[in-house]
Inverse folding.
């Protein structure tokens, strides 16, 4: 079975008909990605709270198709959720970062996915306006959190 077939079967299993969704696969050299487009009202079934279901489906595919993927990464996207999430998170981080710079008080995000934590680290390191800030992830599993704070001289 191919990943595309697996995703098509998954869509049908949740009650979608073939005219309600599309599955696109992009098989690059280092990364394979899959994109599912479906009615917005059905997207929650695949995305879940903060993308938890999306991450779980993605992990299932990585495990199920380990031999096919070999050393490639795999990313699943539903209705451009990842791009929308990145946009929202970028705006939120810039707003919070401005507050941290202004007040000097750190800010802690309590629950973020690994992808969101990575994105925040990247936003802070790539934005010259935020060069006075740094971020640090601590904790384990669902108790992992990220803090944005003003850099000290030794950082």
């Amino acid at each position: 079975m191919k990943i595309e077939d697996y995703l098509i079967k998954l869509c049908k299993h949740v009650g979608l008909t073939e005219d309600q969704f599309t599955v696109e696969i992009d098989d690059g050299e280092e990364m394979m990605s899959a994109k599912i487009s479906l009615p917005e009202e059905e997207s929650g079934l695949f995305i879940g709270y903060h993308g938890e279901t999306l991450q779980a489906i993605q992990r299932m595919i990585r495990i199920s198709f380990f031999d096919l993927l070999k050393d490639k990464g795999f990313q699943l996207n539903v209705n451009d959720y990842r791009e929308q999430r990145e946009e929202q998170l970028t705006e939120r981080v810039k707003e919070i970062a401005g507050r941290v710079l202004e007040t000097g008080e750190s800010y802690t995000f309590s629950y973020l996915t690994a992808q969101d934590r990575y994105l925040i680290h990247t936003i802070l390191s790539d934005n010259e306006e935020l060069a006075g800030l740094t971020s640090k992830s601590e904790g384990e599993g669902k108790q992992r959190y990220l803090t944005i704070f003003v850099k000290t001289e030794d950082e």
